[in-house]
Structure formats: structure tokens, C-alpha cells
Write a structure and sequence with these properties.
Elements lengths: L3 H23 L7 E3 L4 E8 L7 E9 L5 E7 L3 E8 L8 E3 L5 E3 L4 E8 L8 E8 L3 E11 L4
Parallel strand pairs: 2-10
Antiparallel strand pairs: 1-2, 2-3, 3-7, 3-8, 4-6, 4-9, 5-8, 9-10
Length: 152
């Protein structure tokens, strides 16, 4: 039989583990390449590898599970000096509306996020830190994946 102090420790540890598991089941379950603000999910920010001398690159990502309209208003990453919106809604700043209840994409055939002033080539299979800044959701740490090589 366990000593009363040992019994209390065992009971306390068991209760803490049970509470932790219960709380974890209530939170959104993140999968690889998913990031969450309080109002939306960001899925798989990625781009292609770059060649030496390239100064900008288009980044693709999806926004969904949007419970409150928000705006992507900034991006910070150590691989680039800045960012802007390219494509259909091109502008020299990051200002991208994400409507409530819809799936929205930043991708090359529409509007996309462009990293400008690249500081070095981006290599296939590498990942780089990136922080997405939202008007209402605040900063969201994410990872930029370099998924494929450039096709000539």
C-alpha cells in the first residue's frame, strides 16, 4: 500500500493529466502547415525555389474557417526586406481582405503575396520563419515552405 503522501501525488498527477487531455480536445487540432488566428485558419504558406539574383517571389496560402472578416496587413520574415500584394489586387503594401465565412486564396493566378528584396536564394525542401500580421487577429507565427523547384 502507498503512503498517504504518495497516494495524493499519484491522484494529483492523474487529475492533471486528465485535465490536460480534456483541454487539448477542446482546442483546434493543428495539422502540418496549418496556423490559426482567433478568427481564421491559414493553410500551407509555400513558394518555389529561387535562383541566385532573384529579388522577389510569389507566396501561396489559403484562408478558411473565417468567423470574423479580417485583413492580412503585414508579413515579417528574415528572408526578405518586405512584402506586397501582387496579381489582380496588386498594391505596394500588404492589405488583403479575408471575408467572413468564405475560403480565400492568395495564389499566382489571382492575387498573391509577393516577398520583395530577397536576401538569399530559397532552396527546395527548406523552411523559413514568417509572421503573418492581421488587423483583428494580430500576429500569427507560421512557416514558409519551399515546395518545388522552378520549371524552365
Amino acid at each position: 500500500m502507498h503512503h498517504p503522501i504518495q497516494r495524493r501525488r499519484l491522484l494529483r498527477n492523474g487529475l492533471q493529466a486528465g485535465v490536460s487531455l480534456s483541454l487539448a480536445s477542446l482546442l483546434p487540432q493543428a495539422r502540418a502547415c496549418e496556423y490559426f488566428s482567433p478568427h481564421l485558419r491559414i493553410t500551407h504558406p509555400y513558394t518555389r525555389a529561387t535562383q541566385p539574383g532573384e529579388t522577389s517571389i510569389a507566396v501561396t496560402m489559403k484562408f478558411d474557417e473565417v468567423t470574423r472578416a479580417d485583413r492580412l496587413v503585414g508579413v515579417q520574415t528574415p528572408v526578405a526586406e518586405g512584402a506586397e500584394i501582387g496579381g489582380l489586387l496588386a498594391r505596394p503594401t500588404v492589405d488583403f481582405m479575408i471575408p467572413e465565412g468564405e475560403e480565400t486564396w492568395l495564389r499566382e493566378d489571382r492575387s498573391y503575396l509577393r516577398l520583395v528584396g530577397l536576401k538569399h536564394p530559397l532552396q527546395v525542401a527548406r523552411t523559413y520563419p514568417m509572421t503573418l500580421l492581421f488587423e483583428h487577429g494580430g500576429p500569427v507565427p507560421a512557416t514558409l515552405n519551399i515546395d518545388y523547384a522552378r520549371f524552365l
